[in-house]
């Protein structure tokens, strides 16, 4: 199998020739350290012979500078040393704000970012993953996460109006991405901390499940596959996420209590498992000595179907 075939086979519940190795976002400083000759992430993916290339949705900076700026959603950010800037304030605080708010145009010419270039370079050779969001996190950016969680409980009609507006924009962008050549959409809303979900399963099912299912259904209608990403301990939401139609779950953080062997036992016949690499401790603070064992053995262990004691930190486990 080539890289594209390997990923798509796993995502569709088949058995690839080996476990696919994928990464969605690579910090430029990491790229530079690994392969200084790389002009961009595409060159690094080729150099490492990884099975997937990631591409983010593009939203322009409309004011500010490299440190503090406002994007097309009207969200204010402040950059730090990390690749992803931190949202500081959103433009919506009330129903009146929402009444006058206009979201970004999903059909803007540059909305798909580098996707056209990646399709020309990798289509049919490596899986192409466009990473975006469903409805929750952009709503949190617009209102602030504390305010969003409060209105989900105290003013659900207001919360649902915001969620519907965001879902409509994002559904259109996801459809465009698949039509432009993306094979997979990664939906990056976070639903949990390391201690558990931000909300009860009931509130999730009332507020977020319908919008998540709508966007995943749109992805499937266009012929694409959907990976649902959420950091944290999502045990209480896994049934609903799978019922919404996700083809794969990511990242299954081991430090948040997401035991991949147990997830495999409960859900392995329904969904592909992607992740379980310890990024928060081992890869961030480990030494070459402490990383050598788990990282080197991640892809040499037996497939779960062959060994019931299978408990690796791995990258991509097919159904």
SSE map:
Elements: H1 3-11, H2 28-34, H3 41-48, E1 52-56, E2 61-64, E3 68-71, E4 76-78, E5 86-89, H4 95-100, H5 115-122, E6 127-132, H6 136-143, H7 145-154, H8 156-180, E7 184-187, E8 192-193, E9 196-197, H9 201-207, H10 209-221, E10 225-229, H11 238-243, E11 248-250, H12 260-267, E12 272-274, H13 282-285, H14 288-297, E13 316-317
Quick description:
Helices cover 40% and strands 15% of the residues. By secondary structure, the protein is α/β, with parallel strands linked by helices.
Give an overview in words.
By secondary structure, this protein is an alpha/beta fold. It has one domain (3-57, 97-317): Alpha-Beta Barrel (TIM Barrel), CATH 3.20.20. The chain is 40% helix and 15% strand. The chain has a seven-stranded mixed beta sheet. A four-stranded antiparallel beta sheet has the order 2-3-4-5, covered by helices on one side. The chain has a two-stranded antiparallel ribbon with strand order 8-9. Helix 6 (136-143) crosses helix 7 (145-154). The model is unreliable at 294-315 (pLDDT under 50).
The N- to C-terminal Cα distance equals 17 Å
How many separate domains make up the residues? 1
Q: How do the SSEs run, as a string of H and E?
A: HHHEEEEEHHEHHHEEEHHEHEHEHHE
Query: What's the alpha carbon Rg, rounded to whole Å?
Result: 19 Å
* SS elements, strand count: 13
Q: Which residues form runs of ≥5 with pLDDT under 50?
A: 294-315
CATH fold-type name: TIM Barrel
Give the strand line-up of the largest sheet.
1-6-7-10-11-12-13
> What CATH architecture would you give?
Alpha-Beta Barrel
Indicate the structural class: alpha/beta
**Count of individual helical segments:** 14
């Amino acid at each position: 199998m080539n890289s594209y075939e390997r990923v798509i086979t796993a995502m569709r519940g088949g058995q690839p020739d080996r476990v696919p190795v994928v990464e969605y976002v690579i910090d430029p400083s990491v790229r530079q350290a690994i392969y200084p000759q790389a002009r961009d992430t595409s060159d690094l993916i080729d150099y490492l012979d990884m099975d997937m290339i990631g591409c983010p949705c593009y939203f322009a900076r409309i004011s500010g500078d490299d440190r503090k700026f406002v994007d097309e959603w009207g969200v204010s950010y402040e950059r730090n040393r990390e690749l992803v800037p931190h949202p500081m304030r959103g433009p919506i605080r009330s129903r009146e704000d929402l009444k006058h708010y206009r979201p970004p145009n999903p059909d803007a010419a540059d909305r798909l970012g580098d996707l056209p270039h990646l399709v020309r370079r990798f289509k049919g050779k490596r899986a192409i993953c466009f990473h975006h969001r469903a409805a929750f996190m952009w709503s949190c950016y617009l209102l602030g996460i504390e305010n969003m969680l409060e209105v989900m409980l105290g003013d659900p009609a207001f919360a649902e109006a915001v969620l519907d507006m965001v879902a409509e924009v994002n559904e259109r962008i996801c459809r465009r991405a698949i039509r432009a050549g993306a094979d997979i959409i990664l939906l990056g809303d976070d639903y949990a901390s390391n201690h558990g979900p931000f909300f009860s399963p009931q509130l999730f099912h009332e507020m977020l499940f319908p919008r998540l299912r709508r966007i995943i259904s749109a992805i499937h209608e266009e012929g694409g596959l959907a990976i649902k990403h959420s950091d944290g301990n999502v045990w209480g939401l896994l049934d609903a996420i799978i019922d919404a139609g996700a083809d794969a779950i990511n990242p299954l953080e081991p430090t948040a209590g997401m035991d991949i062997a147990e997830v495999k036992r409960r859900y392995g016949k329904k969904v592909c498992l992607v992740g379980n690499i310890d990024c928060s401790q081992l890869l961030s603070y480990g030494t070459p000595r402490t990383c050598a064992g788990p990282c080197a053995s991640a892809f040499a262990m037996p497939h779960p179907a062959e060994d019931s004691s299978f408990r690796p930190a791995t990258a991509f486990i097919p159904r």
